[in-house]
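Model: You mentioned two targets. I'll fold them one after the other.
Researcher: Yes, keep them separate.
Model: Target one:
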Amino acid sequence: MTDGRKDILIITGRYLPGYKDGGPVRSIKNLTDYLGDEYNFKILTCDRDHGDETSYPDIRVDDWNEVGKAMVYYVKPGGFSVKLLTKLASQADLVYVCGCFSDYSINALITNRLGKIKVPVVVAAMGLFSPMEFRIKHAKKKMFTTVFSALGMFKNIYWSATSEMEVGEIRREIPATDEQFFIAQDLPRMVDATPVFKDKTPGRLDVVWISRIAPKKNLAGAIEVLKHVSCDVNFTVYGTVHSADYYEECLKKCGELPSNVTWRFKGELASENVVEELKKYHVFLFPTLGENYGHVIQEALSAGCPCIISDQTPWQDLDSAGVGHVIALDNTEGFVKAVEGYAAMGQEEWNVLTDKALRYACENSNSKSANSGYRIIFDQLTE
């Protein structure tokens, strides 16, 4: 502790100013925004964004940089050495590792197993053990968990999960005791409560989709929904291409949309611009195949956008709150009816809905930050 606050070392693959990895970066940024006055956050991360060949401009590599409410130590790819991990861990009260299948997390587990990390080590599951995620490169992941379990790599660590369901997913693959688990839900982005106004004409709807362009995010499913709507829709897509083949498939599907649906792909969108951009649209359509949290859903609500989403996210109460629809993935007709229902609304009804979505986002943000499980992790393990 340097100033009375506990020093928390977070090890993660990407951080600001990167944005191409989406949710994981946003999760850590939100954590530092909310709790950065209570803890000294130190972040060890890569010096470039996903797929980039050069470092971020205006940063010091192999040194500390002040970024928001955290100090960030950037290294070049492959720079997460046992020597460096040992050195930085010696300056912390707790080490928090994001994920367990990447080079940095593997090296952190090895460093800990060698006895070189003298403080508690917490591994955040980051949704990687969900059935859908674990199926990706399943043989490799299964071999990893089997070998590392046999070598005792997971014995002297703790797990951070977002729900009891995720705890169960981890335990299906890795033996662990109840005492090794903590539950800490992702913290949402801080919400600006300034009212949002959007022009709304009955029969027309501006629909937006924002995420990584990859099969899991199901842009193709959103396009399929819009093939069947009878109202006039302007459909806008933002996202970093993570699968070129899937991107081409989605472009082809957009070309088959009926004449009442206009569409455009607007490419990458930096994280800090997401909420402001979302304010330009009426509805966020997101039939995702699965989300550990779904930061973009909260961001859409904070921009006054009701959300039409799949039932594969933690956001299950949008219908009862009156700020969206949660629909089974195989219920295309349900998605279509939701889009057409919003399209039929006029200005007065839309003003009420926009205000309700923003209020919901504010209340959710305040509740999550006040009851954050991260405080329990950071305080209980460093007593």
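Model: Target two:
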Amino acid sequence: MKAMKNTPKVKMGIVAVSRDCFPAELARTRLRKVVAECRKLKLPVVPCKTVIETEGDALTALAEMTEKGVNAVAIYLGNFGPEGPTTIFAQHFDGPFMLVGAAEESKDLLIQGRGDAFCGMLNSCLNVGLRNLRGYIPPVPIGLSDHVAEQIAHFVDVARVVIGVRNLKVMSFGPRPQDFYACNAPIKPLYDLGVEVMENSELDLLELYKSVAGETRKINAIARDMARELGAGNAYPEKLSQLAQFELTLKMFFEENLGARQFGVYANKCWPSFEFSFGFVPCFINSRLATRGIPVACEVDIYGALSEYMAQLASVHPVTILDVNNTVPDDIEIKDLKGAAREDLFMGFHCGNTPSCCLCEGYCMRFQLIMNRIMEDPDKEPDITCGTLEGTFRPGPATVFRVQADLNTGGIMSYVADGHVLDADPASFGGIGVIGIKGFARFYRYAMLGKCFPHHTALAFKHSGRILYDAAKLLGIEDVQAPLPASCMYPGENPFST
């Protein structure tokens, strides 16, 4: 697998705070213990030399963290902490922050060494709310040094997603295909998240494609790399030059158009006019860019591209975008459902855009069967519909995730569910796999259908639900749906249903 680029690097800082009626040395000592526990986890953290007791200290600490390149920070209540200076630091810090605090270590320290961070956390959170700030607070925010270090390690993953989204540009080409209302993309909720959007015509893409035709050396090098990747699955070698030219086009556009943003993704038109104009389907190129950390959402699904990118940042691994596509017939043998019921299975499918590193051996470049039916003579060899990467998803832990504009509120909503790609033969075509999620049948009916989510979902090839849920909340997405246990009812679920 190629090294993934287009991903933020989190430089994690930790700043201790101390209320003036408590000894500052208590906060310093406890901070040193947390840093030592972080080192045991091989988690590099940058401790702040300044302990925040006053507003002046807050500004000094801010300057220190900024100078050291820190872009995410843990604010550590080594004791009760001064809620004003604490939240002033958080307000002016340019990056995600978390609040954690120190638990009492021993009954022997409850006279001179008591910190009262349990109490201080309440006041700090109140002040965060007063300033309309949004920080991450762990489920158990007060703990001993080893517990705090573990919470910081989780926050690094959450911060990676948040930093990436706030510095992201979604670049799109073309309007969505006819009648694909599922891929509508209201822009304001994206701006509210901090995402920039650059919309372009598919004619712009065609002209760009033509303009790089003379870059023969670069095109040939990409084509050779494609042939190496496909190996025995290179069923249409005559198409590689065209596909390589298209990959070069998207790479060059990406590099030249990030502008003020650090990271980017694509949401591109891929049918039906694309094939007649370009002479191929772009799926294989989409898979290759996703392998390198640049997801490309099909059918101009801008929210799908954002969902893919967030799933990539959470899993630190290439991802794909799928249709939540079809049911799984009972005669498909599956030995291990990984805790799901048979009714909780579905097939995730797309034409052939999944990275090869996420597919089982035997993947192959083929033609898009559905498009071939309507675009080409069935009695002739496929031509303009060639270019998919077909194969079965590798079995293992997986997470489905989607961010979408809320039709009712004009805001934004999300869902996330952990499950597994099951070890099963889908007996079908495209990039495809059988996915099992415990409780998915009810989740599909009352969360996905009930909240009007579209048919596309991002698929991470690792369990990433905990990170994505926390990151979505930290980004301000209040409505995050997740599968509920049988004992809990979804809104609108009939209590008399069996």
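Researcher: Noted. Anything on target two?
Model: The domain at 12-165 is CATH 3.40.50.10940 (Rossmann fold).
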